[in-house]
Structure formats: structure tokens, C-alpha cells
Amino acid sequence: MAGNALVRSYNDNIRPLLDAVDRLRHLKVTDEGIQLPTIVVVGDQSSGKSSVLESLAGISLPRGQGICTRVPLVMRLQGDPDATEPLLHLEYRSKTVETTEAGITEAINEATVEIAGAGKGISDAPITLVVKKKGVPDLTLVDLPGITRVAVHGQPEDIYEQISHTIMGYIAPKESIILNVLSATVDFPTCESIRMSQKVDPLGERTLAVVTKSDKAPEGLLEKVTVDDVRIGLGYVCVRNRVGDETYEQARDEEKRLFNLHPLLSQIDKSMTGIPVLAHRLTQIQASIIAKCLPDIVKKIDEKLHRSMSDLNGMPQKLSNRADALKAILHIFKVLRESLEMSLIKGEYGEFPDEQSLHGAARIYEMISSYSSELPSNCPTTDDPFLMEEVRVLEEAKGIWLPNFLPRSAFCVLLKRKVGTISQKPHEVINAVWDYVENLTIQILLRHLQNYPQIQSLSQRVVHNLITKLSAKSYEFVMNMIEMELCSDYTSNPDYMKRWTEFMEKQGHFMEAIEDHSKPTKVSLEAFGEVEVGHLRAHADVAEQAFDIRMRLTAYWKSVVLRLVDGVALHILHSIKNMVESQLEVELINELVGPEMAGVDRMLEESPATATKRDRLKKSVELLRQSKGIVANVMDRIVVEGGK
Ligand code: GDP
Ligand code: MG
Question: Which intervals hold domain Dynamin-type G (predicted)?
Fold first, then answer.
């Protein structure tokens, strides 16, 4: 296991990992949404957080009234055998300030004022304090503002919400280890810091408790840390911090004596007492959490870098003159046209394989075939008894001429009626198709213009106006088509004669049933099944012609429907092709480039959002590249060590 190998050879191997993580923290990769393994110190106010850090670092930190921590303090402790005295510096807002043990309080206060203002407000921008000292453990910890429930004088009203928000931001990520500082003088379950850590780590799996002020409340401490009624998964370490003006060394001696000699405290297992134990536990935990998290961090950095880079590449160049803007605009028109050709004409959907609504050719085919299936395949009839509609029309068409001529006018009247019943259908499909094409064109257009919001609405209007025009033309076309069907009856389709002749073979049989009253009144006809003809005996004079007309209509109807479907389909395809291949581009150029160059000039005014986005992406790419370099170095190490 990489983790164990790392823990064993701690000194050689952990430092570089820790450095890498610290450098990532310094680069603010957390701003990119990458969480770093972090030990976060939380505790109620005056629980002794700063004192614990002080003990770990062997230095003095700001303390007392008004100078409690108001911003997160990242403490990087580095053991340095060559440092004869502690070397300290602060890093914040991309500056580095050297300081000394005596000056640290003032330096931190100054930095705090610079970050969080002079009042008592808090901020979540951290200060980093680097401490290089002989004998300190290699540890990075974050000290957070203490949890106050009530705003003290001069603090903002919502101080509790502000602090909880900051603390939650640090302890919620699963990469964080929570170091919960509890004062031995209080009842643990009442601690606000326990409530908070339980919210994000209910089983305490990543929570370690430090119990401070053991010297002040030794009674019952053994029981408190053994019973563990607040669920601290990583265990308890009881400590005694510096009291009053003690030096660091004195404080450690006092602590040792306390846990060795105190009648109650000496009963607590030695693996649970003293700052050195705490330091050791923390370095171990830190090593394993870093080893555990790094591979994932590397993966995330790669992913984010990849995404930021492709976003950046997808961004338009900043346009500085009309010529460039014109080039860009013409390029967009060209790719728009290609996309529309693919979708609406060729039916190739590689650009948006999963967006069915943009698969133009397929959707239009569906609309046309559903239109075709809505047109009745047989000539519509009324509910009247068989042939009575024809009979009535024929009776009105009687004139002074020989009775055995089929009056063509009767046929035309009936044909008009039948065509009239379906004359709205072609309009409906045409409207639906144009609505769809407009919608699709605008969606695809907006994709190509996503970086140029300044010309989106103008371009959309162009599409809308063009399609309104084309749709009006289609309306006219369909009107004409219907009018042609209404005004004449013609087809060169040989099927018509063939079907009519077949139908007419039954005419003799049909007439027999009408004229010979002894015959049954039901006749079986291929196209209509079994029909009742008894009622036609009263209209025997026109029955023969009625039969003929019905057969003609029936045979002819197929041709009418075929023309209405084919005509509409061809018209739609033709119109869309024209639109995609030339009209749209012409209109766009007229409106956006045209004599005024309105669109071109707008292209030059880059929206602030685009500029900001480009800057942000550039920074992000730069930062992630650096981060990648940092982790690449240490990952080699993990792989090598892990393989041992
Ligand atoms: P913070 O607000 O959590 O940072 O708490 P501080 O570290 O400022 O400590 C609050 C007070 O408790 C200070 O007066 C410290 O001297 C005191 N204190 C902290 N730890 C101990 C300890 O182990 N023993 C004693 N006796 N006092 C302590
Ligand atoms: Mg403090």
C-alpha cells in the first residue's frame, strides 16, 4: 500500500508531498473546485485553538480580547534542523512578509485588518503563516475563527452565520480532517464545534479531538475521553498548553509532569496525552490522507485543465477591426449553413447525435408521412345510403340532352366537394414544417453565435422574417395546388383507367339488382364490400350514371391524394434547400453586413461577459498547468515508493 510505505519513510517522502499540497493550496486550486487534504482546526471560542497551534509550532500566537482569529490562518510548520531560531513569514494576497516570533502577533493582526477590515468582521480569505523551526512536525493546519453564538460589541449581527459558513466550507469536503479542540472544562456534547463537525462527519471518521485545559478540569476527564459520547472516530488526545508567561519548553515539561504525576490524569493512557503524541498522530493522519487524495487530485487537475483548455479554444478571438469581424461573421454563416445542410438536407447528425429535436430531415419526414396518413386513402363519402349523394347531384344536373351522356358537371361538383373536405390538411403540414424549421434554425444559429451575444437577436430576427416570407409563399403554393385540383380533373396515371374498368365490370350485375325486382337487393362490390341497393330502385333512371360517377371518383381519388402528398413534399424539400443553400445567407449578409455593417460593428463590441470569461479561462489554464507540474513531480515518487 502506498499509504503505509509513505508513513514508514516519512521524513524523506512526506515532505515533498506536503510541499506539493501546500503549493497547490497557495495556488488556490480550491477556487477551481479541487479540494485539498487539509487538517482543519475547529473549536468554540476560547477552547484553546490558538494555544494548541502554538504548542505544535512552539511559538506565540495572537490571543485574548479582540485579537482572536478573524480570518482562516493556514499554518505550515516545517521542521528545519539548521534553523537556530524560528524563521517565520506570512503569505497573503500574493505577498510575503518576513516576521519574527516577537513580531508575529502584530504581523497577523496587520494582515487580518488588511483582509477583513479594521472592525470585528470576519473573512474567508486565508493568511498563511510559515514556521520553520528545529524540531517542529511537518504539518499544515488551518485555524478557523472561533465559533461565537452571540455577536459581541462591534461584531456584525450575522457573525454566527458568517463564521458557520466559513467553517462549513473548510470542514465539509471529505478530504478534510477535523481537529476538534474541546476544553476539558466543558461538557463535550454542548460544544457548538461538535455539532458542526457532526453535521459533515456524523460517524466521526475524520474527526480527531484535542482536549485542552486538562490541568484545569482533571476530574472525570478519563471517563469523558473513554466513554466517547460525541463519536470521535480518530480518538482523543489530552493536552496542557502554555499557561501565562511560560516558555514553550517549560510548558512541555509541565505537561509531561502533569500526565505522569497527577493522580487522575496519570491514569489516562500515554497514547492519548501530550503535545508530542498529538504531533505524531497528526503527521500520520496527514501522510495517509495525502497519499489517499493525491491520485484523485491529479485526475481532477487533468480533467479541469482539459475542460478549461477546450473552453478557451472554443472562445472567439478578440476582434479589433472590421476586416476581422467580417471574416468571423462570414465564417459563422458558413458553418451555420453546413450545420443546417447536415441536419435538414443530408440527414447527418454527427454534430448533435443525441438531440433528436435537431435531426431535421428525420423530423420532417415524420411530419410528411403523418400528413400522408391523415389524408383519406379512399374517396370520402357521406352517411347517405349507397350512391344517394351521386343520385341527388345527377337529378339536379338533368338537362335537355340525350339521357345517356354522363354529365361532366355532376362529376365536377362531387369532386370539388371531396377535395374541399381535405383542403386544410396541406396548409396544416406546411405550417408545422416551417414552425419546426424556424425553431431548429434558431437553435443551431444560437449555438454558432454563443460567443457573440451582441448579434444574436438581430440574427434571430433575420431567420424569423425569412421563414415568415417562405411560409407565406408555401401558403400560396398550396392554395394553387388545391385550386388546380378543384378546377380540373386529369391524370395521366394509367392506374386510373385500369381501376375504373375493373370497377365497371360489376355495373351489369348492379343494374340487374335494381331493375329486376325479383333479385336480391344486396350486391357485392370489390371496392365497397356488400352494399344495399334497394333504395336505388326508385331512382333507376340515374342509378347507372351514379354508379359510373362513384367508380370514377374512387379510381381518380388515388391520383388526387398522391399529387397532394408528393407536391407538398417536393415543395417543402425544395423550399428548405433554397433557404439553407442561399436565401438565409443572403438575408443574413444583407442585414448584418449590408451597407450599414450593423452586425459587423456589433461584433467589435465584445461583451464584458465574454472578456471576463476569456480572462478567467486563461488564468484557470495557467494555474492548472502549474498545478499539474507540481503534482507530476510527486506522483512519480508515490508510484516508486508504492511499488516497494
Ligand atoms: P481560542 O480562542 O480557541 O484560540 O483559545 P486560546 O488559545 O486563545 O485560549 C483561550 C484561553 O485559554 C487563553 O487564556 C489560554 O491561555 C487558555 N488556555 C488554553 N489552553 C490551556 C491549557 O491547556 N491550560 C490552561 N490552564 N489554560 C489554557
Ligand atoms: Mg484563537
Answer: 33-295
Q: Kindly provide the b/e burial profile for residues 283-316, where b requires at least 16 CB atoms within 10 angstroms of the residue's own CB.
A: bebbbbbbbebbeebbebbeebbeebeeeeeeeb
* Domain residue extents for the chain: 2-306+632-643, 322-604
Mutate to test the pocket of ligand 1, among 46, 179, 250 (most ligand atoms within 8 A of CB): 46
Cα of 211 to ligand 2 centre, how many Å? 15
Q: Whose CA is nearest to atom 6 of ligand 1?
A: 48
Q: Which ligand is nearest to the CA of 70?
A: 2
Cβ atoms within 10 Å, residue 63: 14
On whether the 2-306+632-643 domain is CATH 1.10.150.650, my answer is no
Percent of the chain scored above 70 by pLDDT? 94
CA atoms within 13 A on the CB side of 267: 11
Q: How far is CA 173 from CA 49, 123, 301, in A?
A: 21, 19, 17
Listed residue (364, 419, 348) closest to 569, CA to CA: 364
Task: Tell me the DSSP string of 428-482.
Answer: HHHHHHHHHHHHHHHHHHHHHTTT-GGGHHHHHHHHHHHHHHHHHHHHHHHHHHH
Strands 139-143 and 38-43: parallel
Region for residue 441 given its phi and psi (left: phi exceeds 0; alpha: psi -120 to 50; beta: otherwise): alpha
- The CA 113 to ligand 2 mean position distance, Å, reads 16
What's the pLDDT score for residue 637? 66
CA 114–ligand 1 middle distance (angstroms): 26
Nearest of 489, 452, 119, 487 to residue 315 by alpha carbon? 452
Instruction: Spell out the CATH class of 322-604.
Output: mainly alpha
CA distance 559 to 490: 9
pLDDT tens sequence across 434-465: 999 999 999 999 999 988 888 999 999 999 99
What confidence tens digit (pLDDT) does each residue in 515-560 have? 999 999 999 998 889 999 999 999 999 999 999 999 999 999 999 9
Which H or E run includes 270?
none
CB neighbour list of residue 83: distance below 8 Å, 6 or more residues apart: 132, 133, 134
